[in-house]
Design goal:
This protein is an alpha/beta fold. It has helices at 67-80, 104-114, 120-140, 151-164, 178-187, 212-230, 239-252, 274-284, 293-303, 307-320, 327-337, 343-350, 357-360, 363-366, 402-411, 432-446, and strands at residues 2-3, 19-27, 32-40, 51-55, 85-89, 171-176, 193-199, 255-260, 267-272, 389-394, 415-420.
Length: 449
């Protein structure tokens, strides 16, 4: 691991002595990777000889290793009062690491297609061509080999990092969403892991393409149930019926709107048709604070009011084009971790949800990875942890359902499962009880000889 000056500036509130920057040099098949690592020293003084490593979701998300992100991480570390250093790492292909798996042509396409009122089939077909070309060009210049990506590779990099950081007595891994999968695989490869906090976990055998129809349908059913329980809808009709009627209206007559790009000049034109509206809805279901946006937008479609729809789509667009999101890494890792789609089984599963079939069936043709080589025959095996662990799950998590956390808990004797009523995805960020439980585990596991 190579120490180096930080590639970002620090705000005046942060002492340079409290930040250490380095690169983890990781071997690939054709070239080496340089993965940025940032260590944030506990402001109140280090009370423990172990450290906390955060593993973000995705795959494809960077850790926010820039000025704004570091400010937020220091605020979080101060608020949590963890009493130990926080270690952040950008996985292969994201952030400021080298090589970055980035394609300007795909980013331009993604912005341009949003402004066009095209069908989902057209968007997927055109996008697949651009994506294939991007991966081919990256491969030709030596910046992409599919064998360099996947959860095992990320876990190996993490295990190597823990081995190199000899000054710490051990490590607590905090994984959120996809990061839980990396944490579980890494814990099986390095005996310096003291504990795992897995928030919104992806256990073994979950998250593949053929489970998407059920996942989407269940997420919407949970949302309709929440709305019934809270009397969330202010429209005149039945909420579920109005929801699907709103999709039909936008399919027939898309709305052209402009949304603000956060932290950037200019705006993005969006042709809001039915499948993009549905994407905006699913994005909002991740955070319970955003749930009210959905019934407000549904009512707005019926009333012809654009502002609530703009608010819904603004969150989606800014997530998709965030500087911390790398779409190609998502595809590269997902295609290495999961088997190729069985179109027959997928379409059979999609047929169980006729209201959603127009948004599910087209994916059968384009949910594939022709640039990644032969498909994996079976999904990646994720080992059951053996270290002490805390599993956190939101009651209405749309993408990693509560049942997945319960499945993992039953298979993991050393785990504690905590469910959070009325919460969505990533409860560590929305519920103080989750932080309290995590701190208790870090303290008890850190004290274990």
């Amino acid at each position: 691991m190579d120490l180096r000056p930080c590639h970002f500036s620090l705000s005046s509130a942060i002492s340079p002595d409290s930040v250490v920057c380095a690169d983890l040099v990781a071997p690939g098949h054709e070239r080496t990777f340089r993965l940025p690592v940032v260590i944030l020293r506990a402001r109140a003084g280090r009370a423990s000889d172990d450290a906390l490593i955060y593993l973000q979701g995705g795959p494809g998300a960077a850790a926010g290793l820039h000025r704004d992100g570091i400010d937020e991480w220091f605020d979080w570390l101060t608020y949590v009062e963890a009493g130990r250093d926080l270690i952040l790492i950008d996985p292969r292909g994201v952030g400021e690491g080298e090589p970055a798996l980035w394609c300007d042509a795909y980013e331009r396409f993604s912005q341009e297609i949003l402004a066009r009122p095209v069908s989902l089939e057209t968007e997927l077909a055109e996008g697949a061509l651009v994506l294939d070309d991007c991966f081919q060009r990256l491969g030709e210049r030596g910046d992409f080999d599919p064998a360099d990506y996947g959860t095992p590779q990320s876990a190996q990099d993490l295990a190597a990092l823990m081995t190199l950081l000899e000054s710490y007595q051990g490590f607590h891994l905090l994984g959120v969403s996809y990061g839980t999968r990396v944490a579980m695989v890494a814990a099986a490869e390095n005996d310096r892991v003291l504990s795992l906090v897995l928030d919104s976990p992806f256990p073994d055998g979950r998250g593949g393409a053929e489970q998407w129809p059920e996942t989407l349908a269940n997420a919407l059913e949970q949302h309709f149930s929440w709305c019934d329980e809270t009397d969330c809808y202010r429209g005149e009709g039945d909420y579920r019926n109005d929801f699907f009627q709103a999709l039909g209206s936008l399919r027939h007559t898309p709305w052209q709107i402009r949304v603000e790009r956060w932290g950037r000049t200019g705006s993005q034109s969006v042709a809001v048709n039915d499948d993009r509206f549905l994407a905006g809805v699913f994005n909002a279901l991740y955070e319970d604070s955003a749930w009210p946006r959905v019934p407000a937008a549904v009512a707005a479609v019926h009333a012809g009011e654009r502002e609530p729809v703009r608010e819904l789509m603004t969150a989606l667009v800014n997530l998709a084009f965030s500087e911390d999101w790398f779409s190609l890494v998502y595809y590269a890792v997902d295609c290495q971790d999961n088997p190729g789609i069985d179109r027959g089984r997928y379409l059979s599963a999609a047929a169980d949800y006729p209201d959603l079939l127009p948004y599910l069936a087209p994916l059968a043709e384009y949910w594939g990875c022709p640039w990644s080589g032969p498909s994996r025959e079976h999904a990646l095996t994720v080992p059951v942890p053996t270290v002490p662990g805390l599993i956190l799950a939101g009651e209405r998590d749309p993408i990693t359902p509560q049942a997945w956390a319960e499945q993992l808990h039953l298979a993991w004797p050393g785990s504690r499962l905590e469910l959070f009523e009325g919460r969505g995805h990533g409860v560590i960020w929305s519920d103080t009880r989750a932080l309290k439980l995590a701190k208790e585990l870090w303290q008890s596991a850190g004290d274990t000889p």
